[in-house]
Design goal:
The protein is an alpha+beta fold. It has 2 domains: 31 residues; 41 residues, Wheat Germ Agglutinin (Isolectin 2), domain 1, CATH 3.30.60. 37% of the residues lie in helices and 16% in strands. The chain has 1 helix and 4 strands. 7% of the residues are buried.
Length: 75
């Protein structure tokens, strides 16, 4: 195999790889984020460390805690 054929083969492989990556990026940008966006102020539960919206948090002595519905929190 001549050097010219090797160079052409290498360029075709490189070009195919570049096209594949461009397609992957476009597909990734079109898919929506799996996580839910939370708007507003977040506070951290003093008992379990989870961040939650300030509106749903329970306040005791200036500290924030998860609401009673959260079974994972030991407060």
């Amino acid at each position: 195999m001549g050097i010219t054929k090797l160079i052409i083969l290498g360029l075709l492989i490189w070009l195919g790889f570049r096209v594949y990556r461009i397609i992957q990026r476009r597909h990734t940008m079109k898919t929506p984020a799996a996580t839910k966006q939370i708007r507003g102020n977040l506070v951290q539960c003093n008992a379990c460390g989870v961040h939650l919206p300030k509106e749903t948090a329970i306040t005791e002595n200036g500290l924030f805690y998860c609401p009673p519905e959260n079974s994972d929190c030991n407060h």
